[in-house]
Amino acid sequence: MLLRQGFANSLPSWCTQAVGAVRKGENLEQVRMLAYEEGVRLDQDRIQELYRQMGNEGAEDVVCRALEEIAVRMSYANKLHKRGELADLRKCLRSLAKIAEQVGMMDLAHVARDVCTCVDQADPVALAATLSRLARTGERSLSAIWEMQEFLM
User: What residue ranges do the domains of the chain occupy?
Assistant: First the structure.
């Protein structure tokens, strides 16, 4: 892979060193991919309360519909971002956050609100970064709640 000379020279030295790049447009010997993994926090009390109030069948139905809606909204949020429809993106994310809170996905709700903040601040770089974080957090939250739901049944 080549770094164009103008681009490579515009990068700070810590950046080129972090990926093993040479600042003079030479071939990269090694590119390191940074993997960031964070845990997710589920509000177990909220989920257990759903099961107490609605019984296993009712709570399972509510949780399954919420998970499906969250997945749909996350996909839709990416499409809205790509099309530049930021007002609709904000609405989508606000509703995603509310649904996530209802089923105890507190981290997902928090990240969705962070993405809304980036929309409000008209910060395209932060918006792209927080949307990526939303995707990671959403995937892990969906997996975690499925595992927890199996335990509660």
Answer: 1-34, 44-152
